[in-house]
Amino acid sequence: MTREELCANRSEALKAFDFPENVISCEKYGNGHINDTFLVIAKSKDREKKYILQRMNDEVFKDPVSLMHNVVLVTDYLRSKIIERGGDPERETLNPLKTHDGSAYYRDSIGSYWRMYKFITDSVSLDKVRNADDFYQSGVAFGSFSGQMAGFDASQLVETIPDFHNTPKRYDAFERAVEADICGRASGVAEEIEFYRAHKADMEYCANALAEGRIPLRVTHNDTKLNNIMLDAATGKGICVIDLDTVMPGLSVFDFGDSIRFGANTAAEDEQDLTKVSLSLELFEIYVKGYLEGCGGALTEEEIRLLPYGAKNMTLECGMRFLTDHLQGDTYFMVHRDNHNLDRAHTQIELVKDMERKWDKMRDIVEKYR
Ligand code: ADP
Ligand code: GN1
Ligand code: MG
Q: Cα(45) to centroid of ligand 2, in Å?
């Protein structure tokens, strides 16, 4: 079935959730690569209210029921922490709606899984930073998210995507995709394949640090893109971490690194003009500052030392995942044009090359904060 077909039963899903308003519109929304997201505008007593409706991608998340169990556990936990500190639980965490049967998800008549969230009001999510402060704010918010999750019992969480950031396993999957070459695309990307082969050892560095016990496993977000955080529309402050589908045990250096990969790139993730791609050292530094402040002193010396390695690791891993998806026929990430995943892989390769040029400077910046 196409994505359009899988989303056909939106109205059926909307009727299943318990909210009193009349729906005025339900339109495709946002720039996520995984779930199908819709903005719902509804009217209640002459006031408009907004909600997010999502079809969960059950190709990517094989067990959407357990996934929602995780989301409810995490948001309940965060809500109690927010209330404890006198914050606003309506805006500072996701609020999943319940169905009339009291469930946090709805399975429609063709088997698609849906969920709804209250819309975080008076906030923005950005695909590109407007200024350095946006990035600083996102660093503080992602850092404090990890800090808050430190008190959460991670053994309750289901691993929604096993080995999500196990980069050596991602490398093996990439080699299998090259070998199988089911779309006949491998010969057209020989240079790109060679690039990842030449960087195999770089993709083992952080995994080895974990295996040798030099850095700890924490409860991390695992998808710390700038557009997975809501900033207050008026003050620009980071208010709410969203996209909690991959909250699992993971590495702090990967949460840090994925933010850098996406937000400190001077170009968009799918920019076709590669001369625009570079690592902004100014943004790198401001994020180091924000993330460490957000973590509130929780990171160890070795974790801090490894922050640049986390950035390089995540840029390598993500680009290799885009290339793997290109080789496999674009079945994982949402694509909107021919060779979209290949374009994304190219920006990630370019960004790694720039990190290599700026490597000493990245390390010097981190040393300043150690
Ligand atoms: P995906 O997994 O596909 O990335 P997300 O959960 O990140 O899906 O949602 C996609 C986009 O929808 C986000 O980047 C954000 O702009 C918007 N969004 C998601 N949830 C909310 C919410 N509760 N309030 C406001 N905007 C939201
Ligand atoms: C996906 O869901 P979204 O768009 O926030 C992906 C991330 C990638 C990212 C690349 C569950 O994130 O791992 O880094 O695209 N999420 C999943 O832009 O695979
Ligand atoms: Mg997202």
A: 38
Using an 8 Å Cβ cutoff, are 351 and 261 in contact? yes
Nearest to 35 by CA among 154, 101, 117, 98: 117
- H or E, element range at 27: strand 22-28
| Cα distance between residue 233 and residue 63, in whole Å | 34
Determine whether the shortest distance from the Cβ of 246 to ligand 2 is under 6 A: yes
Considering the segment(s) 3-121 as one domain, its CATH architecture is: 2-Layer Sandwich (3.30)
Average pLDDT, integer, range 40-44: 92
Over residues 228-265, the pLDDT tens digits come to: 999 999 999 999 999 999 999 999 999 999 999 999 99
Contact 19, 97 (CB under 8 A): yes
The rounded distance, in Å, linking the Cα atoms of 318 and 344 is 9
Nearest-ligand number for the alpha carbon of 127? 1
User: Domain segments of the chain: what residues?
Assistant: 3-121, 132-369
Question: Which ligand does the CA of 223 lie closest to?
Answer: 2
Helix (H, G, I), strand (E, B), or coil: what is residue 37?
A: strand
Backbone φ and ψ for 117, nearest 5 degrees, come out as: -125, 150
Provide the residue type at 96 as one letter: P
CA distance 47 to 53: 19
Q: Count CB-CB contacts under 10 A for residue 188.
A: 13
Residue 150 pLDDT = 87
Per-residue DSSP letter, 217: -
- 37 alpha carbon – ligand 1 mean position (Å): 7
pTM above 0.90, yes or no: yes
* Residue type at position 241: V
Intrachain domains 3-121 and 132-369 with the same fold = no
Q: Is residue 74 within 8 Å of residue 41, measured between CB atoms?
A: no
As a whole number of angstroms, the distance between CA 98 and CA 119 comes to 14
pLDDT in tens, 263-291: 999 999 999 999 999 999 999 999 999 99
Q: What is the pLDDT of residue 140?
A: 97
Q: Which CATH architecture has domain 132-369?
A: Alpha-Beta Complex (3.90)
